[in-house]
From TrEMBL:
Gene it is expressed from: Nfu_g_1_012085
TM region positions: 726-749
Subcellular location(s) of the protein: Membrane
Topology versus the membrane: Single-pass type I membrane protein
One BP annotation, GO: innate immune response
Any one of the GO CC terms: plasma membrane
Family from the record: Belongs to the Toll-like receptor family.
Taxonomic superkingdom: Eukaryota
SMART domains hit by this protein: LRR_BAC, LRR_SD22, LRR_TYP, TIR
A GO molecular-function annotation: signaling receptor activity
Identification of the protein by name: Toll-like receptor 13
Residues of the TIR domain: 776-916
Amino acid sequence: MATKETSSLHSVVGLLCLLCLIHLSLAYSLKNCSIIYQENPSAEVALDCARRKLVTIPDDLPKHTVMVQLGENVLKKIIKDDFCDMSKLSLLNLTSNEIASVEDGSFTDLVSLKTLDISSNKLTNLTSNMFQGLSNLIELDLSENSITFIHSSALQPLVSLQTLDLNENGLKEVADIEPILLLPQIRTLRLTCNQFSSFETNDLPLNLSSSLKVLGISSFQLETFSIATPIFPYLQKLDFSGCGQQYSELQWDIPDKALLRNITHLYLTHPGLSFEDFQNILQSFESLSHLRLAYLDFEKGLLTTICQIQTLRKLDLFYSDLTSLSIEPCSQVTEIDLTLNTITELPKGTFQSMKHLRSLNVSLNSLTNIPYDVRSLEGLEVLNLNGNLISKLTCEDFEQTNHLAELYLNYNNIDNLEKCVFESLTNLKILDVSNNLLQAFGNTFTTSLQKLEVLDLSHTVLTVVRICDFQDALKQLDVETSFFGREKCNSSSELNNLESLDIQFKLCNYDNNLEILHTTSQDDFIHLKSMKRFTVICNNADQGFNTYKAKASSFRPLTFLLRAMENLDTFRGVHVHASHVGTFQFNSQLKSLTLAKTDLSDLNSKFFLSVPNLQSLDFTENNITSLEFLVQAELYALRYLKVTDNEINVIDDSVLKSLPSLTYLDLSNNKFTCGCSNSGFIQWVKNNKQTQVVNAHQYKCSFPVEKQGTFLLDFDIQPCMDDGRFFFFISSTCLVVLTLLTSFIYHFLKWQLVYTFHLFLAFLYDSRKGKKQDPHQFDAFVSYNVHDEDWVYREMLPVLEGEQGWRLCLHHRDFQPGKPIIENITDAIYGSRKTICVISRHYLQSEWCSREIQMASFRLFDEKKDVLILLFLEEIPPHHLSPHYRMRKLVKKRTYLSWPQAAHPGVFWQNVQRALQTGDAVAENTDLLTGT
């Protein structure tokens, strides 16, 4: 019984192991998710399951996944089995669903989870074992739910939690957050936009001490804020912003300033505060360094109060209806942010006292010129003026700001840049003048800005941009223009450090776009040795594929430009016909290539011969009808292939086999044929274990008409497999296996087969004649080799036939002429009472002698009669008998007669006589070989 139970247990374990192996070998044909592509391959798997209209967690998530994005679906609840065995998961995003409940223990297996986002759902309470198992969770986002209740033990498993976001929920009482404050590692707690009418530490246990450093606590209903106990000894940041405008009065009660001595950051949005209330609040802080205010009235001397905070270093004033600003002496401030106000002017003297100012942000206002005081801010390093109404820059605007490193003037109305504007900016590294009305910039960048590294001139109305317009220090250039090149360049600028170039052409008229590149020498661009990333975009999207194709010859200068980029790593072209065979002939280091919205219908494999290191290829919306051009492209390093929004009908197996390193394939929005022509591709998608075919289960059929709208992977390929190829495959396989098996048997089991054959013949003979009980014609059949014939006639016959009178059968004398020899042997053995084997070395080497003794052996063991007598004429060591398996086995188990060892010939022949006299019956102690 125990044996049966053990066997059953082993069977179950084996089945489970088999199931595990099957799961581990799952292909990448995930139905509802796609594996996020990683440029650097690793064993870690990140899944994107967002925006798939999922109502339940997919059951085919790989167990070794480390990140899952499940946001923006319609999930209703989380149950225990949803994330079973996913012990390596470190990030789980469930935001923007309809989750109303999480079953206790649902996260038990997520022992490595560090970030969990369940924001924007419909949770109403946190149950006792909801977060069981999440001992390593660091960040938890529960914002934008309807949570009103937190069980006292709900957060106990979260011993590593540092950040908890409960913004926009329904918590009402301070006592509700006690379980949070008890967490040993909690650092940040956000409670913005809940329903607290008061926040008073007296409502919490007196002995409670939290490790909290950041607290956000604004609320529309908040009327009282009181910290009267040392509950927050480590608190550094207090945030009362983020819940819109709050017009109610706020009663501020801090009896001891020492309770807030560590707070350095205060964010406050509260239009209902009176001037006195605000002064009272500020007086509660001793170490304030960053103050952020919004929706406040600064017309009542509020800034004077602020500037009296000697520890203040950064001041943010948002949404405060400031048309102008007059800041009292605030010499201690190093950063000021005035974003999103209505400032139209910052008059002279506004920042006069701010000698230590390092950063000034006045973006998204209504300034029409550069603030006058900027020219006197000698220590200014960052100036952000984007999103204003500035149209003119003067030579005096930056005349003394020679420490400025970053300048943002984007989204203004600037139409021209004079040479003198930036002459003083000798340390500027980043300049953004994009999204302006800029038509020309003259020699602005040739005589100044010698340290400029990043320049953005995109989305302007420039017509001509020349390489020699820039300094050698430039590393990144973004530009929109009608022409780009080196026409009329007399400068020695080489742009040796340029790493990234992004060109957007306003029109796709290739006859004029790059005509400026038609220079007398193709070596005009040898200076672009450091180029890593190059983007060319044509913004005129109205021209069709035929236009691009017809104008291809006019884009040859692009090849000249690329020729200089020997170290180019990434190229992106949109509305650019760059499919000429020699386009990238000098860019052997190219790893990423994108060509979109052009005509690649005539592309061939020779195009890729010069880019053997290509790893990423994106051919989106290019009128491609087939991927045959990849078969001989030799893209052995290609890992990422995206050919979406094209006209592909059929994918041939040879294409997939030619890309041995492919791990990511996206063929979305093509016009697939649901027929046997795609059966190989369908089978490959389902079974391959290397390449992820992104959203393969969403690919729809376009042909034939009756299949339109159905899914490609739902097409039944079984009938396609029965077209004869499978039969020929099985037949040829069987033939090969049979040939190999036959060769193996002949080489290793030759003698066993021969012996089996003779046993079968003996069996047939025994069935035909032995069962008839025919009388024996001879007393003994003598089996001997022709080389021993002299001994048989000289020694044996005179004694056995002459003296003792036995009837012997000898093959040369008694075999029937014309009869098959094997049948003669069988008749002789079964027609004689005994078989005498005269054994010598010649005997062992004889094939017919071997057959005779095998036949006799079969009769011996089949009839259980004493029929076999062994006579050894020579001394033969046992190891010489090893190749003769049957003989060695008989000698090892039975005694035998030896002519060389006989003490006297008479005794020897007497023993032979005794063996011949033995009857058919076998006694238990009778030796079947000798009768002794």
